[in-house]
Amino acid sequence: MLSLLRCPQIGSLLMREKNMLRCAEGHTYPIENNIPLLLTPTKSPKEEETRRKIQKFYETVTFPGYDDIDNPSVLMDKAQKSGFGKWVDEAISPISTVLEVGCGTGQMTNFLGLVSTRNVIGVDQSIPSLTLGQKFKEQFELKNVHFVQGNIFAMPIKPESVDVLICSGVLHHTPDPKGGYMELLKLVKPEGHILIGLYNTYARIPLGIRKCIFRATGNLFRFLDAHMRRKDVDSTKKEIWFADQYRNPHESWHSVDEVLRWFEETDVEFLSCVPGASGNLFTKHPQGSRCGHILTQLGWILTIGREGGLFVLVGKKKR
Ligand SMILES: C[S@@+](CC[C@H](N)C(=O)[O-])C[C@H]1O[C@@H](n2cnc3c(N)ncnc32)[C@H](O)[C@@H]1O
Fold this sequence. Notes:
Elements: E1 14-17, E2 20-23, E3 28-32, E4 35-36, H1 45-60, H2 72-82, H3 84-91, E5 97-101, H4 107-112, E6 119-124, H5 127-139, E7 145-149, E8 162-168, H6 177-185, E9 188-199, H7 205-217, H8 235-246, H9 256-265, E10 268-274, H10 290-300, E11 310-317
Parallel strand pairs: 5-6, 5-8, 6-7, 8-9
Antiparallel strand pairs: 1-2, 2-3, 3-4, 9-11, 10-11
């Protein structure tokens, strides 16, 4: 993994010295519990203030939650049920370098790393979340999986080094989602793939309404959230979900056309969208029209709007 890591301050190579990494300019970064700590601040002080708030929040709310019985077959089962994890796994070649940014507790990172020929790296700023991912990785001896502490706006990864970059449920918690996307795209190889998951402007409306109800009633009627009614999820996981969705210090909402514009402006070809894709996520699907996108997103109010309202666009970086 060392060959993929870079000094987040000057972008140079890092050398291992006992329990730390050092760059040619002398910047040093500790390695604690096998996790390189390469987090450096965002340049803009105002944005750094928001990043810190979010970091603090996810140090307590380690999302998504694991429970004691989680093991590789439980992760596989979850992926089958959710659909998304299974489709991502099917689309990604068994021989590839995959980077998940904002991996949280690393469930997706560890799941994709169950294919031992993939090199999978999970980056997040929350140490308690990364520690849970690392614990799972060590327990099940996933030698090809690595966790690193880092900041999206000062990524400690070599440019154009990854085949697939996944960033789902993360950029909407940053003060500059488009800027974050552009930083991440730099890390993708030409012809590599990028998957961006964001809260949808339309599909998030029901949750916005529920949030107002919960605030006004001091969190009464929590059963209005479909996730809180689920019988197959334990109470700790439900609390983590509730905090992530309803008490988050910062979030923004985005439309399909907005992300398509990011793709156009950065020479990324649209391939597919979840929900909506059929078959392999990395094959070209019809892009549809603006009017069609509005109708589809209105429909999402009744489907993905029942939970978090997250959609994912998949793109391919042009040469
Ligand atoms: C809602 S969780 C998503 C976790 C995972 N991607 C998933 O979908 O289950 C958002 C994650 O983004 C991370 N995050 C937010 N801002 C970040 C930043 N600037 N740099 C690195 N990670 C960040 C948080 O620490 C948190 O773990």
